[in-house]
Amino acid sequence: MINFVCLISRQGKVRLTKWYSTYSQKERSKAIRELSGVILSRGPKLCNFVDWKGHKVVYKRYASLYFCICIDEEDNELEALEVIHHFVEILDRYFGSVCELDLIFNFHKVCLLASQPKL
Fold first, then answer.
1. How do 65-72 and 49-52 pair as beta strands?
2. Where are the beta strands (DSSP E) in the chain?
3. Which residues contact 71 (CB under 8 A, 6 or more apart)?
4. Which domain holds residue 31?
5. Global pTM?
6. Separation CA 116–CA 105 (nearest Å)
7. CB 3.0-4.6 Å disulfide test: which of 3, 53, 73, 75 passes with 21?
8. How far apart are the C-alpha atoms of 29 and 17, rounded to whole Å?
9. Per-residue pLDDT tens over the stretch 44-67
10. What's 92's domain CATH number?
11. What per-residue confidence (pLDDT) applies to 116?
12. What stretches in the chain show pLDDT beneath 50?
């Protein structure tokens, strides 16, 4: 099960979060802060999977954004990578060649795409 999805820039700024499990606002802030620190500090040749508090976080960097998905420990990491890639392809089709500014200035459209069941 997907617990949450977040998009983080290389500077550590959160561009999008979508929560599918219940977390308090304090827990959300702490989770994003911890994960952005861990993911941004990892080298480019390291694995795209991180164990975090009994969950797995799968991430992939596209241009200047890190697309992260937190899944349950027993879920398939490669399937999560496919979900990330599929989401990026949808954004590319919708915006042309998607960039970070598309996500910032069309936030409502990206949230709508993220909540579609086809994802």
1. unpaired
2. 2-9, 14-19, 49-52, 55-62, 65-72
3. 1, 2, 3, 55, 56, 57, 58, 77, 80
4. 2-114
5. 0.86
6. 20
7. 3
8. 11
9. 899 999 999 999 999 999 988 999
10. 3.30.450.60
11. 65
12. 118-119
